[in-house]
Amino acid sequence: QVQLVESGGGSVQAGGSLRLSCVASGISFRPYNMAWFRQAPGKEREFVAVSQSGGSTSYVESVKGRFTVFRDNTKNTVYLQMNSLKPEDTAVYCCAAQYIFGGSRYDYWGQGTQVTVSS
To answer: What is the distance between the alpha carbons of residues 33 and 63, in angstroms, rounded to a whole number?
Structure first.
């Protein structure tokens, strides 16, 4: 069984930092692009960042310069370092895995971890 488990969420004040982790089990980690999405109350799910299998990264414009995505293939873990957090970053953050030899859809999703940023 494939499972993605996020951790590291919590409540912080604006300007603070959090680091999210996503541990994958049941798959070989390396041939997957690993992405982070978020969904705020009343909003649609939004792409945040991706760490591609080959090492490249990309981010949604609103988090550039503040968030960093990176991975440790040995530990089957992808991270999202979030700095200078803003109240508008409040959301449930989920990780997702995309097989590089498949299509564009994400194959597996985690349950999510709550991030709350107070002003």
So the answer is: 19
Residue from 16, 9, 7 nearest 118 by CA: 16
- CA 45, CA 92: separation in Å to the nearest integer? 9
Running along the chain, 119 residues long, what does each successive block of 10 average in pLDDT? 96 98 93 97 96 96 98 96 98 97 93 97
Locate 3 and state its tokens.
């499972």
Distance CA 80, CA 91 (A): 14
4 and 29 in contact (C-beta within 8 Å)? no
Return the structure tokens found at 105. 């859809």
CA angle 12/17/22 to nearest 5° reads: 100
Under DSSP, the state recorded for 102 is S
Q: How far apart are alpha carbons 4 and 36 in whole angstroms? A: 12
Given this model, what pLDDT does residue 40 score?
97
